[in-house]
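User: two proteins, same treatment. go.

Assistant:
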Amino acid sequence: MIAVTGATGQLGRLVIAALLKNGVKADQIIALARHPEKAADLEKDGVQVRDFNYTQPEAMVIGLEGVDKLLLISSNELGQRATQHRHVIEAAKKAGVKLLAYTSVLHATGSALGLAAEHVQTEQALAASGVPHVLLRNGWYNENYTGGVPSAVAHGALLGAAGEGRISSAARADYAEAAAVVLAGEGHVGKTYELAGDSSYTLAELAAEIARQAGKQVPYKDLPEAEYKAALIQVGLPEPVAELLANSDAAAAKGALFDDSKVLSKLIGRATTPVAESVALALRA
């Protein structure tokens, strides 16, 4: 039995789809969700759905009953993640889970990303727990940037704070497929996978690609981190999210989002999705 936390989220749904595509039967998959009612469609497809809340440690043990392999998708509650993840790890240990795969962040232990700290704490908790595990250190998603493509086209500029830093991103679906490969296969215990896109780009190069596809001028405007954060807040993003994105760009300027090992494409057996393809999807949407 393979269980996926955050099953109704963007990554969780893609992982379940990839598991089914890789030959795992629906009745071998358990969708763990804080709001099970949002997984009704998965249940109709034969996937078992269970209530699973990162803040309810005792109930999580019940939720993991009979689970052999578990994908712990990192929580989106900044500042609470390390504690929530530790609760899941403890529950997995009590439930006798044989493999826990965790979605960490690229080069976590040496990363300049502010969000890396909670991932490192989770990795340390896993190491101390004795639960057999594998680390999926995910790089940036194409969608982290292409989600802002329509706005960049509308306003005639792509804003950021990444300087000349190169970003090795891949589509969210690529990372989901890697998780499915690990969960459906064997021989991954104790391994750490640094996962990133096959090719890299600067935000100036991304802006040029957006401009090419949109058929209008979309220059890249590089801002100091604080100014970029203020701009994000001005367009309606919550301050913690704006701070995260601005900090991530500043870290990217120092190389935090670059990796040329091509471990991700080797794991999934195909090239990763170019950012240009994700730009095209964003423009069509």
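Protein 2:
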Amino acid sequence: MRKSTTVLIGRWSADRPVSMGQLCKWRDEDGWGESWLAHCEQAFASGEDELLRLLEAELDRVEAATLAITRSRLDGVEANELLLQVNSALELARNPESRNLSLEGRLRMERGLAQIECGELEAARDDLTWAETRLKSVSKAGRDHDVSLLNKAAFHVLVDEPLMALQVYSEIPRDGEHVAETIAFSRYGAAQLYAQLGQYDAALRHSWVAFTLADESGLADLAWAGGTTFLAIGAESLDDDAQGMKSQVEQATPRAAGEDSTEPSVTTEEYSSVFHRCLELWDGEVGGDSRQDLMGLLSAALILGEITELSDLFKSPEALDDAFLIAAIMQVVDGDESSIWQHRLTSMMTLSDVDSSD
């Protein structure tokens, strides 16, 4: 199975400089084709300028134009300007002298994303659908096809079409050709949607798959997101007679129309295991005005009787910006500290009232 482009970048960082021949060998070992575009994009994102200069010289005209779009997107270029750049690259991809069917699909996806930013949603829908169809035909389960599926699902979420988004996610099987990163992202997205639809059994399974795959693949941020979602959903579903999550996932079948969902359930042992792994993944950051991840961690600590493991969460009330999280903490701390947290919550509400009156 294809490895992440970060693998080659990491080897370069450790062993630089190396010959182009060695880089090609690493690329082949990682399961990539002859194009260096994906690694150029990763090198740019990682700030590996020396490697980028080396690999960029290997790109053809269409690949170079596509890399320029990635640069512009990461540099925050305005959507209207980006749209012009994409259309120019598309002309190259369609030109008989430089025709590239795969990158034409990739560029139609890029145009769809730019159109979303411009508010042209129906045009974006057409481009994202066209791109996914093309990429499925010429590079199924390739990097760009995977990204096109995730972007298509995200579009359906954006326009409030959750069932359509779930349909797209279902096109990414766990046992297919897609890389673990794509599967993990799709299952995390599906978990969020199933939770919103009240199908918590499915949400629990999908969040567990997302957490497990991401953790095994070294994707710490995604493992944290999937794990804390799992903790939040499973907080009231501990059952030591439950099947293991792996068995639940393997035995799950699509729900028939009108069929009731089953109650979610997870053993205390598995739940505790995810909790402790999330503790290891937590960077200690508590800021942000929407911290459902920390709410999940707090819920698990309360259920498991391990609230002392979250001592860092209670150290600095002024560092927290999520009013719901602060209100939850007020129910946990003792009376002497509760007034401090009450003061923080009151000050936030006061500032909110002042801002809304301006």
